[in-house]
Every structure is written in C-alpha cells, then in structure tokens.
Amino acid sequence: MDLYLARHGSAEDAALDAERILTKRGTKETEAMGRWLRKLRLEMDFIWHSDRVRARQTAAILHKKLKSRPEISQVEGLKPNDDPKAILEKLKTTAAKRGMIVGHLPHLGKLAALLLSGNAGGTVVELEKSAVLCLSNDSGNWAVRWLIHPGIAPDA
Q1: pTM for this prediction
Q2: Residue 58 and residue 28: Cα distance in Å, rounded?
Q3: Which of 6, 59, 97, 101 is the most exposed place for a label (fewest CB within 10 A)?
Q4: Does residue 155 fall inside a structural domain?
Q5: Residues with Cβ < 8 Å from 122, sequence gap 6 or more?
Q6: Nearest-5° angle of CA 107, CA 130, CA 116?
Q7: Among residues 127, 131, 125, 46, which one has the least CA distance to residue 91?
C-alpha cells in the first residue's frame, strides 16, 4: 500500500476565524502541491480528511488536481489530538492500494511515527503546512518513499 499523508495548508488565525479556513497562501501552496502530484500521475483509491474546514478544503483542492477521482470522505479519528491507533486499525481493514490522509499536527506526525516505528511517541518526520509524505508498505513494513513541501516542490 502507498499512503500519502498531507498536512492542511496555511489557515487563518483562530482569533480572526474560528472555522480556520485556508488563507490565500494556503490555497496557493496546496494548489501547487496538487499540480506537482498530478505530474506524478498518482492514482488514489481514497482521500480521507478530518472534520476541520482547513483539512476539508485542502482535501478538495488535492482531489481536484489529481489525475484520478478517488472517493473523498470525512473520517473520524483525524482531529489534531486524536489517537493515531484508530486510523491504523482502519488502514488494516481497507483493501485499497493507495490512499491519502489530509489532516493536522500533531496527529499526522504521530501516525507517521506509529507506522514507521510502531510507537506514536516522538517525531520521525516534520510536516510543514501543505507538505505531503509518501509512505509505502510493500513487505509488511512501512518505509518513507519521499517528502515534498511547498518550499522545494517545483511550481510551488
């Protein structure tokens, strides 16, 4: 399975916008990441996102930019402070070969740590806003394939 962990784009300050919608910069960077992913001709079976507006907006932008039109859905267990073990269990039950999870820190960092090391504690990778981490599990063990963020993505 290939799994893409995508952090939401830059969002409004909570004091200015309780819903925390994407800023213009967040939208622009996410669109650039989507174009970069499209150039890779990635096929996805699903995109899961949290119930937060900024994650939903990011997922919608990436969905629109991808070559394939995967199922996109809001999934419980993807809030910033949720336990990543719930998502690990959900991943174990899916027959999908490729999927994307759009979410938040610290959850995505803990999920990456859990997949890569078996322990959700500590940090194994830093995800900037609008960054995408590709993990692969071909032999029963998860491994990092690549990490891209707006500062290094072509066209970002």
Answers
A1: 0.94
A2: 10
A3: 97
A4: no
A5: 113
A6: 40
A7: 46
- Residue 141 belongs to some domain of the structure: yes
Model confidence pLDDT, tens digit, residues 47-71 = 999 999 999 999 999 999 987 888 9
Q: Note whether residue 33 is domain-resident.
A: yes
Give the type of residue at 53.
V
Count the domains in the chain.
1
Beta pairing partners, 35:
none
Which residues, in sequence order, are CB contacts of 119 under 8 Å at separation 6+? 113
What CATH number does the domain containing 114 carry?
3.40.50.1240
Residue closest to 57 by CA, chosen among 93, 29, 94: 29
Phi and psi at 144, nearest 5°, equal: -80, 130
Phi and psi dihedrals of 20, rounded to 5? 60, 60
Q: Is 123 within the bounds of a domain?
A: yes
| Amino acid code (one letter) for 125 | V
Please give the residue range of the domain that contains residue 111: 2-148
Residue 137 CB coordination number (10 Å): 13
